[in-house]
Structures are given as C-alpha cells and as structure tokens.
Amino acid sequence: MAAPLDIDQLRTFIAIVDVGSFTRAADEVNKTQSAVSMQMRRLEERVGKSLFEKDGRINRLTSDGERLLAYARKLVRLNNETLAAFDEEALAGTIRLGTPDDYADRYMPDIIARFAKTNPNVELMITCEPSKDLVEKLNRNELDIALVTHNPKVRNSILVRSESLLWVTSMAHSIHTEVPVPLAVGRRDCDWRRLGCAALESVGREYGVLFTSWSSTVIASAVLAGLSVSILPESALRPGMRILTAADGYPALPPAEIGMIRRPGVATILMDAITDHIAASLDNITAADDENDARSGTRKGRNRGKSTQMFSSW
Asked: Collapsing DSSP states into helix, strand and coil, what is residue 86?
C-alpha cells in the first residue's frame, strides 16, 4: 500500500500558494525557509510530480501543482474538522464582527481565511458600516467586536495598527489641479474627511465635496475616473492612483489608525481568540509590505487565498 500524504507538508504547500512566497510561508507555518524547501522536495518525491517550475528567480506552480492544490485544501480542511470534532476544548459559537467597508476590503479576507482554518466551528458574522454606526451597534449589543478608526477623543478603542494616510488622485487625469478641488470622501462625521478638510483649510486651498459615501469602492471609482481627489490609507491604494504630496499643494496628514473595541459579556476564551488573531494578522502586514504596495499602486491582500501561480525563489 502506498504511504499516505503528509498533512503537514500539504499545509505548507497551501501556505506557499496563499501568501505567494516560500519565505513568507516559512513564517506562516513557523518553520525555517530550508525546512519549507525540504518539505516541498519530499512532497514532490511522494506524488512523483514536479509541483513548481523555475522562471528566472520565480517559482511557478506546474499543472500538477495546480491539480494537487485542490486535493490538498480538501484534505487539510477535513483533517482540521475531524480533530475539532473530537476536541472538547475546541472553540465553538458565533462572533459578530463589525468593520468599515474600506477595512473589510483590505484586511478581512486574510483575517477570515486564517481564523476559519484553525477554528472551523466558530461562525463569523460580518457587518460593514462606518465606525460611528459600529460603535452604536456595540452599545446596543448588536455586535461583539468592531474594528474602527482609532480616535481617543471620540471613542475608547485599543490601537492595533497605524499607517500613512494619503491624498490620492488618478494617474490619468489632472483633477487635482482644479480650483476648487473636488473631493470624494466619507460622510460628515468621518474622521478622515475632517482631517482632510482641516488640512486644506490650513493652507488656504479651496475645495468642494463632490461625492459622499462610506463605500471604499465608490470613493475609489470616483478617483480612478478622474472625477475627484480623496484620502486613503496607504494599504488601500489601487492601480492607477497617484499619491499627492506637499509639492502638489496637498499638506501631509496624520497617520490612519485602526482601533479595536470589544463588547463586555462575550465568552472570554472565544473573544480572546478572535481579538488576538486580528491583532496578529494586522501586525503581520509590515511597513515594508505597504511601501512596496504603494509604489506599485497595488494591494497585497487581493491575491491572498488564491493561487497566483508565481512565488518568490526558494
């Protein structure tokens, strides 16, 4: 009888695909890069097929690698579910999580995917609304935890991430030179809107609010269409956007800060698990990653959880 596949090797294989790099996968599975490479060689020997092929310094999935990936995900998921079914201490229940739309777009896919892998019996119910509305829902016991714009003057939240807040315009248009400057921003109580308007007023730059929406998709669309200028955190930059600086007449802004608020009364073990997971996930997005994303105008999170077929060199 043929020897069974090694679940740990399959888990590492999936991690490489999900994070797009052997080096980052090593951090994901708590192994050295050499151990990850060795695992992949042994997995290739076990299935008798090459899973990766060299393209310069890049490793791509072969067609056999793509075929194995589907089976690997099923096997690892079934393994996790089986262990959880016999683990009396396994977490179970429902967590109601709230987040602004722009945070959901950038961070939630990664957070949800990782948490679901290790806690298959916990249901996450996600609500996307502005920070102010999320706090009100927490106060009405309609949410258990919320990611919000951290503003100590307005709300009590624990700071879990800080990054640059930037003026952005379309690379293909010159709308940022118009007077008054047309803006696409959040609602009147949006912290970023207040910061941006105050910054423009401080340098005597005229502006007018052309689009108001709490949807990051609507705001980004207005910018990319060359209809307006907006304010976005560095990690939310999209292809086709250009960063505006003081040289363009747009003053520097304070950093964008993400806070987390927990509702009292939720099962401590379950709440600790999700809050620790969120904090760790946000912390794993390094400044270097965001800088690279900003330079290319892309967002790293878009390809997570999907096969990109391209990986950093071993």
From this structure: coil
Is 306 domain-assigned? no
The answer to whether residues 51 and 196 belong to one domain is no
CA 251/CA 247 separation, integer angstroms: 9
Residue 206 sits in the same domain as residue 191: yes
Residue for token pair 């806070």: 259
Q: Using alpha carbons, select from 278, 300, 306, 280 the residue that is nearest to residue 288.
A: 300
The answer to whether 216 and 142 have CB atoms below 8 angstroms apart is no
Backbone angles phi, psi at 29, to 5 degrees: -100, 10
**Is the predicted pLDDT of residue 118 greater than 50, yes or no?**
yes
Inside any domain, residue 307: no
| Domain span including residue 43 | 7-87
Cross-strand bridge partners of residue 195: none
Q: Are 150 and 259 in contact (CB under 8 A)?
A: yes
Per-chain mean pLDDT for the chain: 81
Please, are residues 181 and 207 in contact by the beta-carbon 8 Å criterion?
yes
Contact between 100 and 131 (Cβ < 8 Å): yes
pLDDT tens for 249-293 read: 999 999 989 888 888 766 567 777 777 778 777 765 543 343 344
Can the peptide bond before residue 182 be classed as cis, meaning omega within 30 degrees of 0? no
Q: Evaluate if pTM is beyond 0.85.
A: no
Same domain, 195 and 50: no
* 310 within some domain: no
Whether residue 82 is found in the same domain as residue 98: no
Quote the number of domains for the chain: 3
> pLDDT digits over 200-254, tens only?
999 999 999 999 988 888 999 999 999 999 999 887 889 999 999 999 999 999 9
| Residue that is last in its domain, among 87, 107, 124 | 87
Render pLDDT for 127-182 as a digit per residue (tens, 0 to 9): 988 888 999 999 899 998 999 988 888 888 888 888 899 999 999 999 999 999 99
| Residue 55: strand, helix, or coil | strand
Question: Where a domain ends, among 72, 87, 102?
Answer: 87
Q: State whether 137 and 246 are in the same domain.
A: no
